[in-house]
Amino acid sequence: MEKTTVTNDKVIVFDPRLSSKIFNKGYFGSFQDGKLELSFEEALYLNEKKELAVFDRKGKKLGRQALINVAEKNQKRFWVRYCVFRSMRAAGFVLKTAFKYGGDFRVYNKGEHPGKAHAAWILYVATEHESIKFLTFSAVNRVAHSVKKKVLFGVVDDEDSVTYYEINWVKI
To answer: The pTM is what?
Structure first.
């Protein structure tokens, strides 16, 4: 069996040593039944850093573009999410999913350990061509405020560069 296998919604790392190394180095993934499960964003990031080889279910090694193709087939808005993920991880932040908050990622401050610290932001990803309705914007802010987090928007332009906007509550 290969050390990693891609599924429809994640990449599973079977090798215990590799799993520990990856998790301990940057809190990538989460352990389920003794195996490390990585999001497509995490797997591609580690693959680009030459820290992880990914294989399909038949044991064939996937190159970068093949992994992107699998991710885009199985996850909506993968590339936009990945651009933001890569930018934040390169800056030293740890990201975890934020689906239960209606966001794309929870963002932990540099050096903080998910599970021991709370995320500082709920990150929402968009392209520069998208718009957001005021009611949606209001709901996003209410959810974040209710769980004591700030809102962060990562906006990806046509060159895959990301600009961040932090939203804060102000009492007057």
So the answer is: 0.92
